[in-house]
Specification:
232 residues; mainly beta; four-stranded antiparallel beta sheet; four-stranded mixed beta sheet; 2 helices; 11 strands; 7% helix; 24% strand
């Protein structure tokens, strides 16, 4: 086995040489191979559902649609509730609950590190699977860090034998059906959007846009989770 690959609690990780030492899982939660879409989760929920909406979100009152956990704004909390929690507790972390061991959902900072320290290449057909998404390589040179490549031939010499992860364009499960698979990807962080507690930070790519859009995704939406092992 190559020295940049290992396992934790039965699930494979890749060392992309990131400054923090964070290791990234090779597939999404709910998947067994990189090209599989896996499950979708609402933020702070640990099981997939048939559909995702205000009406079935765990941490929102179904009567008032006010928040009951992870809130920094009294106007958004049920009866003025605030707890000032801005990072998911482990009991609400889909990576930790489903995979155990040292696995966790990434923070927004870890997602930004992945974006800024690696070389990103869009593919319509990952490893002959027919699945589209971004291959995220360990950068071979400083000039490659943060580069997004989407043309026919990469500007640098990378192959699937190099350290990488693949983020499939897994779409979302908002309506109960799979939407936008093959073009769009939405990946949760464990970090609350402190500019508005009704959302949490995500990294997203909307074909053909770059995956540099860090935005707040509404917490009740069904998005993908890619787990990490924090550096020691």
């Amino acid at each position: 086995m190559k020295n940049f690959i290992g396992t934790e609690n039965g699930h494979e990780w890749v060392d992309l040489g990131l400054p923090t030492g964070t290791k990234w899982a090779t597939c999404n939660i709910g998947a067994t191979k990189p090209e599989e879409i896996g499950d979708h989760f609402a933020w702070g929920e640990v099981k997939p559902k048939e559909g995702y909406s205000f009406l079935n979100y765990k941490y929102k009152s179904h009567e008032t649609f006010k928040l009951t956990k992870y809130n920094t704004d009294r106007s958004e909390g049920e009866n003025g509730f605030v707890d000032y929690k801005t990072t998911l507790d482990l009991e609400d972390d889909a990576a930790y609950v489903n995979w155990g061991g040292k696995w966790m959902m990434p923070t927004m900072v870890q997602q930004m590190e992945l974006r800024n320290e690696c070389y990103w290449e869009w593919t319509e057909d990952y490893n002959g699977s027919g699945v589209a998404g971004f291959i995220v390589y360990k950068a071979k040179a400083e000039a490659d860090k943060g580069v997004i490549y989407k043309d026919e031939t990469p500007s640098s010499s990378y192959s699937l034998g190099d350290a990488h992860i693949f983020l499939p364009a897994a779409g979302d499960g908002f309506s109960g059906d799979l939407d936008d698979a093959g073009s769009d990807g939405f990946y949760w962080s464990s970090s609350l959007n402190t500019r508005g507690s009704k959302s949490a930070w995500i990294v997203m790519f909307l074909k053909p846009n770059d995956p540099s859009n860090y935005d707040g995704g509404f917490r009740e939406n069904g998005y993908s989770v890619r787990a990490v092992i924090p550096g020691e």
